[in-house]
Amino acid sequence: MKSNCMYLCLLLTFGGCFNFQAQEIKIFTLHDFDLIDSVKTNLVVTKYGKEEYNFNPDGRLAKSKTKYNDTDYSITYYKYDGPYLIEKRFENYRENTFDANTSIANFYTIDSISNKKITEKIISYTKEFLEQYEYVYNEENVLQKIIRTNDNGIDKTDITYDHYKGEDTKTYLLNGEILKSIRTSNGKGKNKGLKIVLTKTYLKGKPVSAVEEVCDMEGGLISETTFEHSTQSKQFEVQQVKRFYYDEKNILSKTETTIGKETITKSYIYQFDNGETGNWVKEIVTPDNTYTTREISYY
Predict the structure, then answer these.
(1) Measuring CA to CA, which residue among 161, 132, 130, 137 is closest to residue 147?
(2) CA 47 → CA 67, 74, 286, 291, distances in Å?
(3) Cis before 287 (ω within 30)
(4) Which of 118, 140, 144, 250 is most solvent-facing, going by the fewest CB within 10 Å?
(5) Interatomic CA distance for residues 159 and 55, integer angstroms
(6) Rounded distance, CA 45 to CA 48, Å?
């Protein structure tokens, strides 16, 4: 149950990672929700309401529901064909009434005759075409470009991959201008045996912020450092450092967040649905004394 070392955005966004909503298609599974075994449903009680997730027998997300109050909620449905996501529908309900104006559907078609290409069309429930994305892969099934088309024209994101002195860099270029870079390398010195992922974001080709994640080789997050780019020093300056600690069962037990000279420590206590094993059903965070509960059913 280690925190995952990952840079992709999570549930219900699929976009939002980039400033014009381009994204790599991600299929969510039990692992993304810190769940194990054959979970059928997971009901999470949060500060702003309730979230319910339904999974297929193979562990892929089939439906998610966010309930803000007794009458306002949103539902997302996921449909698959073999290994591929082929349909995603986001439906909004206000005062228990379906709102077609704010509900959308995403349809995916896969062309694998030569190099794979996935086309995503986004259409409103009022039958209005919103935009289209084309995901183009090379012979090795590696994503090379994302082409976005809407009423404002066409945007193209090229994705390049470079390997230099043991470091792998993945770069996103929007219409030829750098948007994001992700550099992965093996740690040295005190970080030997660990993996370091440095993600930099840019706006109009200029650096804005960065996040450095230090992970173990299984993907467990050890530390996360956030930076902002200073226009004065023309360098990335540390804003926050967060460290993650785990118990002997690899379960998150403590975090330490350092901002300037101040360090905030939080401890995590869990209750499980099978004694000391299984999935956690209650997470208590001290000293805040806040908690999250989960109701889980199984196949």
Answers:
(1) 132
(2) 11, 16, 16, 9
(3) yes
(4) 140
(5) 32
(6) 8
Q: In this predicted model, what pLDDT tens digit does every residue of 119-169 receive, in sequence order?
A: 999 999 999 999 999 999 999 999 999 999 999 999 999 999 999 988 999
pTM score of the predicted model: 0.86
Q: 198, 155, 204, 154: which is closest to 179 by C-alpha?
A: 204
| Residues composing the chain | 299
CB < 8 Å & 24+ apart, contacts of 7-10: 7/182, 7/197, 7/199, 7/211, 7/213
Q: Name the amino acid, one letter, at 76.
A: T
Show the CA angle centred on residue 86, arms to residues 81 and 92, nearest 5°: 130
> Given this model, what pLDDT does residue 187 score?
85
Q: Are 80 and 63 in contact (CB under 8 A)?
A: no
Query: d(Cα 91, Cα 101) in Å, to the nearest integer?
Result: 10
Q: Does residue 220 contact residue 246 with C-beta atoms inside 8 Å? A: yes
Q: What is the DSSP letter of 287?
A: T
**Contact criterion met (CB below 8 Å) for 86 and 79:** yes
Count of beta carbons in the 10 Å neighbourhood of residue 259: 13
What is the three-state SS of 145-211? EEEEEECCEEEEEEEEEEEECCEEEEEEEECCEEEEEEEEEECCHHHCCCEEEEEEEEECCEEEEEE
**Which residue type occupies 183?**
R
